[in-house]
Amino acid sequence: MTRDLKFEAFYEQPRARVWAALTNSEAMAAWLMPNDFAPRLGHRFQFRTTPAPGFDGIVNCEVLEIEPPRRLVYSWVGGGIDTQVVWSLEEAGSGTRLVLEHRGFRGLRGLFVSSMLRKGWRSRMLKVRLPVVLAGWDGTAAFPPDLGVACSGLK
After folding, report:
1. What gap in Å lies between CA 121 and CA 142, rounded to an integer?
2. Is residue 103 part of a domain?
3. Number of domains composing the chain
4. pTM for the whole thing?
5. Residue 130 lies in a domain
6. Is residue 51 part of a domain?
């Protein structure tokens, strides 16, 4: 049994700004999790968050595909799952259509973890936290530390 998650969102910002929010380590830390990401094929990095039962708080990743500013794919291994995250961006009218696919949840553990991640991706990350980063940062200047602090308080 395999389960995949797929979400679509539209943002009024240009694709370059959305791409920057997905590939800048500081921006990602503000809306997703602290990390040591670099937008480079083959780069191994980690997301770190608060540990929970059965999860040490570390997600090990590797950049598998990168096609700026259209597509980013990385592995996502931690908490008993071995999956892939795929980001696709398209220009759409005055903004950007973003598609997130989190693929490869297997077995009962995968079903359980995918249920938890479904809620986080859809309700918190794509609808609340990422839009705050996009509205508060132009994607070109240094990432403003106060924006990261503001995002950390968002549920």
Report:
1. 25
2. yes
3. 1
4. 0.95
5. yes
6. yes
Task: Report the CATH number at residue 80.
Answer: 3.30.530.20
Q: In the structure encoding, which two tokens stand for residue 44, read together?
A: 């191994």
C-beta separation of 68 from 43 below 8 A: no
- List the domain range (segments joined by +) for residue 29: 2-150
Phi, psi dihedral angles at 89 (to 5 degrees): -125, 135
User: Which residue is associated with the tokens 């553990």?
Assistant: 109
Dihedrals phi, psi of 59, to nearest 5 degrees: -115, 115
Residue 54 lies in a domain: yes
DSSP 2-66: EEEEEEEEEESS-HHHHHHHHH-HHHHHHHT--B---SSTT-EEEEE---BTTB-SEEEEEEEEE
pLDDT tens digits along 98-140: 999 999 999 999 999 999 999 999 999 999 999 999 999 999 9
Distance, in Å, from the CA atom of 114 to the CA atom of 104, rounded to the nearest integer, reads 9
Angle at 102 between CA 99 and CA 106, to 5 degrees: 155
